[in-house]
Amino acid sequence: MSINWFPGHMAKARREVEENLKKVDVVIEILDARIPDSSHNPMMDEITKHKPRVVVLNKVDMADPKATDRWLSKFRSKGKYPVALDGRHNQIIKKIEPLAVKATADDFNRMEEKGIRRRAIRAMIIGIPNVGKSTVINNIAKKKGAKTGNTPGVTKQQQWIKAGQQMELLDTPGILWPKFEDEATGKKLALTGAIKDTVVPLDEVAIFGMQYLLEWDPERFNAFYNISVSQDDDIVTVFDAIGKSRGMKASGNEINYEAVTNRVIHDIRNGKIGRYTFDKVDTQ
Ligand code: GDP
């Protein structure tokens, strides 16, 4: 599997994030609720050291609600402060701020005991590309045009944004690289749009998605495409069925496999077929 991230980029991203971490009391890690494990940078724990961590399971509108509950319990059991939300909704700060307060309570109490005057809680947002970092920041900042882009690390000119009643947030997120631990992780990242389409061959991504749906939600998958296939069918049969049902023909009445591939990826990625969580909590 080819990788877009190189050791130099990773080292730079890591250094920049570590530099910014010194300025904050709490880290708000944004994950994709559909892949809470695959969208977690493996070095995150090492990089954030002992900083309290609020975990935002973003894009919850596209994840399986039961799986989301299981993930929330799992994160709580590990001493994290998780919340599941749709980053595009207003008022998300009302869900995030109380958790940041709880997460930092011990540290601030200790400071007060030492006679240090209470100040705003300082936070920064961290996550891999496309999990919704800018969406969340823009939403909290209530201003258009917070910096977007998939450059590693963080940009230089930063500002603190007032976030809620007692929090300040760095306006630029820390961007970390996605993990490429195995092929399944790469396919999940591609299926949810976290990595560029070119990194994993698209047909493999589509096949992964089809097989997932045929295993976990075959009725809805069949109903959505108005087809009748099963897990036992050859994958070409599945492509053919969708192509035929949706009239995706190339010249000479052949099925246009590329069109089927793109269609399936688009439908799954955007939650058109249903709400799915591709990382299972019990297998972690
Ligand atoms: P970033 O690279 O982490 O800053 O990600 P962006 O904020 O640019 O978001 C990537 C895409 O996900 C955009 O198209 C957003 O509109 C979309 N997005 C962000 N949050 C949510 C969410 O909670 N639900 C849904 N459905 N889409 C979201």
UniProtKB/TrEMBL annotation:
InterPro entries: G_CP_dom (IPR030378), GTP-bd (IPR006073), GTP-bd_ortho_bundle_sf (IPR023179), GTP-bd_ribosome_bgen (IPR019991), GTPase_MTG1 (IPR016478), P-loop_NTPase (IPR027417). Residues 14-178 form the CP-type G domain. PANTHER family: MITOCHONDRIAL RIBOSOME-ASSOCIATED GTPASE 1. This is Ribosome biogenesis GTPase A. Its main location: cytoplasm. It is found in: Cytoplasm. It comes from the Bacteria. SUPFAM superfamilies: P-loop containing nucleoside triphosphate hydrolases. Belongs to the TRAFAC class YlqF/YawG GTPase family. MTG1 subfamily. Required for a late step of 50S ribosomal subunit assembly. Has GTPase activity. The lineage of its organism: Bacteria, Bacillati, Bacillota, Bacilli, Bacillales. Keywords: Cytoplasm, GTP-binding, Nucleotide-binding.
